[in-house]
Specification:
Layout: E1 2-7, H1 12-23, E2 28-35, H2 39-49, E3 53-56, H3 59-67, E4 75-78, H4 79-87, E5 94-97, H5 104-113, E6 117-120, H6 124-140, E7 144-146, H7 149-157, E8 166-173, H8 183-186, H9 191-194, H10 204-212, H11 214-226, E9 234-238, E10 244-250, E11 255-259
Parallel strand pairs: 1-2, 1-5, 2-3, 3-4, 5-6, 6-7, 8-9
Antiparallel strand pairs: 8-10, 10-11
Helix pairs in contact: 2-3, 4-5, 5-6, 6-11
Length: about 260
């Protein structure tokens, strides 16, 4: 049985994580939850999974959570302090870092120092501090497991492979809603059009980053640190169908791909 501390439990990755817990009740359990401001959903999660600790992003959110009258475990902190408390809770074996933006960095570093396995869905952590995080993990003997779609695909393709077998990593990109447009077309696009992602259902920020292809640039940086591969060994291929999530090319010329339906 592995016990999870989930940073960002009410977001899309957090909810997907809890669905995996539901599917494997003899292998996974919830030890601690940290959430943003979705009080009603967090109250439901607390009632269902009975964590030992809870944190939220603001004191106002905690007050609203208490006002629901639902039985609550100890509130271990607010904001960055709460994330760190959940990530380092003694009962947690694996920290699911699904919090948005830069907030998860301190919590991930603290969790690594506490010897927790890191399951990373927050690419900003490695974009900001990839060298610091990976060196800390190496020093403490802690595994960093990618659970974001493309990087998890690479992780699966490399399973059991020695580093010397890898020639290059190949990330795929849907191309977003503006693929194929001319420069003149792009002068007239709107924010409303930018959030119409053709293949994936994601949050607004990452959908905008997908439309501009900025997200793929961040994923290249993330892949560089996760898999210790220089930028000259990371390529991106536009693949609008989004069936191939990522590929690896080995030194013998063979290519291994991970495929699946477009379902987060």
């Amino acid at each position: 049985m592995k016990r999870l501390g989930i940073l960002g439990s009410t977001g899309s990755i957090g909810r997907s994580t809890l669905a995996v817990v539901d599917a494997h009740p003899t292998r996974l359990a919830v030890a601690a939850l940290a959430a943003g401001e979705q009080v009603a959903l967090l109250a439901e999660q607390v009632a269902r999974y009975r964590p030992e600790a809870v944190a939220m992003s603001s004191a106002e959110g905690i007050a609203r959570l208490r006002a629901t009258g639902a039985p609550l475990p100890p509130i271990v902190g607010v904001g960055a302090e709460g994330l760190i408390a959940v990530a380092t809770h003694p009962s947690v074996d694996i920290v699911i870092c699904a919090s948005s933006g830069t907030a998860g960095l301190e919590a991930v570093l603290a969790a690594i120092e506490a010897g927790k396995t890191i399951a990373l869905a927050n690419k900003e952590v490695l974009v900001m501090a990839g060298q610091l995080v990976t060196e800390a993990a190496r020093r403490r003997g802690v595994a960093i497991l990618p659970i974001d779609s493309e990087h998890n695909a690479i992780h699966q393709c490399l399973h059991g492979r020695a580093p010397g077998e890898l020639r290059r990593l190949i990330l795929t990109a849907s191309g977003g809603p503006f693929r194929g447009m001319t420069a003149a077309d792009l002068e007239r696009v709107t924010p409303a059009a930018a959030v119409q992602q053709p293949t994936w259902q994601m949050g607004r920020k990452i959908t905008i980053d997908s439309a501009t292809l900025m997200n793929k640039g961040l994923e290249v940086i993330e892949a560089r640190w996760l898999f210790d591969a220089g930028p000259d060994r990371i390529d991106v291929v536009v693949h609008p169908q989004s069936i191939v999530h990522s590929m690896v090319e080995l030194v013998d010329g063979s290519v291994i791909a991970q495929l699946g339906v477009t379902d987060m």
